[in-house]
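Researcher: Sequence recovery benchmark, item below. Answer with residues only.
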């Protein structure tokens, strides 16, 4: 038989090069196209997702289908959303013998994912997102998945190592910021493994990490107004070197600053602290107190 064997695993350097040569594919850096060529890493990603035949897997950016193949083995159904139309015929070929995979051509940031989940995964016992994400849009994609409160069990994704560390960071360190608070409000993060840049074609400039986000059924803190809570968090980190008092002054207006000291004290937060030391619980109390005080924020 000439040309790549459709039944072989995609994730090897030779097979990936064969497919790229067969279809005359050229990588688009602007779409974050770095294809994984290491079977062991794929297995770690898939195993962290905890799939079985009763579960659905939503993949974002299947590329030439390396991860998609493994997901099709483990999950009941797979829907894979790919933006690059040049990859659609390749995916259809590579996945031709996988009857439980549906390739969707589209931009994940523009699609109605609620509808997509309903359409492809109705009747299954749970759905997880599993992906090697394009790095240029990691945060917008994850925030869309979380803010839209999609019915997801887990999100297991390969992302830039520094971003994964920020998502999992605890208060007090320099990695902890508004992204940590947002992710931890919706999920329990766990770093699965660090991945060197050498296991991709082409190689990115940075190392990666696989992170598992277990989506919470309930937020871990009591928040009355989520939009206000997140504005308070953003405001508290606006200038990292400033104290919480100074950052919040910018949020509530200078004319209200004399109210801030007592308000912070009433929340048990010393005004000289920095945003990066505040726990989710403290941010929730602060947002609540600002709302109660009727301060503009
Ligand atoms: N899953 C493959 C793998 O692991 O080898 C490819 C991963 S590659 C890092 C990211 C993929 O996401 C590319 O195939 C790229 O075309 C696709 N992509 C980029 N932006 C996208 C978007 N907004 N919506 C859907 N797919 C996107």
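Model:
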């Amino acid at each position: 038989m000439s040309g790549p064997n459709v039944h072989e695993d995609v994730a090897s350097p030779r097979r990936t090069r064969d497919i790229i040569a067969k279809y005359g594919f050229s990588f688009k850096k602007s779409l974050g196209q770095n294809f994984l060529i290491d079977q062991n890493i794929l297995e770690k990603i898939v195993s962290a997702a905890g799939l079985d035949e009763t579960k659905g897997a939503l993949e974002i950016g299947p590329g030439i289908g390396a991860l998609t193949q493994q997901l099709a083995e483990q999950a009941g159904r797979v829907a894979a959303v790919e933006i690059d139309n040049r990859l659609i015929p390749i995916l259809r070929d590579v996945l031709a013998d996988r009857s439980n995979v549906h390739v969707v051509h589209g931009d994940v940031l523009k699609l109605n994912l609620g509808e997509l989940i309903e359409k492809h995964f109705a009747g299954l016992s749970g759905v997880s997102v599993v992906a090697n994400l394009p790095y240029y849009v990691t945060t917008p994609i994850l925030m869309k998945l979380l803010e839209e409160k999609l019915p997801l069990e887990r999100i297991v994704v390969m992302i830039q190592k520094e971003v994964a560390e920020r998502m999992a960071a605890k208060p007090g360190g320099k990695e902890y910021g508004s992204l940590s608070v947002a992710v931890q409000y919706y999920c329990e993060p766990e770093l699965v493994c660090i991945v060197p840049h050498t296991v991709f074609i082409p190689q990115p400039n940075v190392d990666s990490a696989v992170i598992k986000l277990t989506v919470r059924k309930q937020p871990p803190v009591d928040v009355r107004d989520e939009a206000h809570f997140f504005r308070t968090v953003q405001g508290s980190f606006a200038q990292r070197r400033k104290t919480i008092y100074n950052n919040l002054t910018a949020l509530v207006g200078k004319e209200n600053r004399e109210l801030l000291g007592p308000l912070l004290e009433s929340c048990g937060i010393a005004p000289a602290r920095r945003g990066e030391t505040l726990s989710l619980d403290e941010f929730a109390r602060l947002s609540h107190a600002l709302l109660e005080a009727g301060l503009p924020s």
